Amino acid sequence: MKKLALILGLAMAATPSWASQQLASDMACYNCHSATQRSGAPTMARLAEHAVKLRGNDAAIKQAAEQLRAKSWLHPIAVHERLSPAAAETLMRWLSEGAH
Ligand code: HEC
User: Is the CB of 84 under 6 A from ligand 1?
Assistant: First the structure.
């Protein structure tokens, strides 16, 4: 199931939102971006609030995905850096659509 969600998340251009949520869950995003704030990471809802301005803007979503994957010296986050370009883009698009 994990593999299936990953393949769906990577391969499909119009990914159903449940697949993206599964991807976020499989990639352990919720470990830090949970419903309640933990370890200095914004909640998933807060991330979505910020990402809403990217909605429908493919170039901006791609750029945000690259930014997420880029190594940060201030906050090195291995899970962010390990994302494939396609997975990062899928997750940023999902966030921009409200992360439901
Ligand atoms: C180890 C904890 C941790 C995990 C796991 C994690 N994050 Fe984060 N994330 C953070 C922290 C901390 C920040 C805030 C970084 C900062 O303030 O610069 C952040 C910031 C972000 C941001 C905002 C980036 C920005 O430039 O403002 C996005 C989007 C994001 N995370 C998405 C994800 C996604 C998607 C996943 C799953 C693939 C994930 N995160 C997994 C800790 C984590």
Answer: no
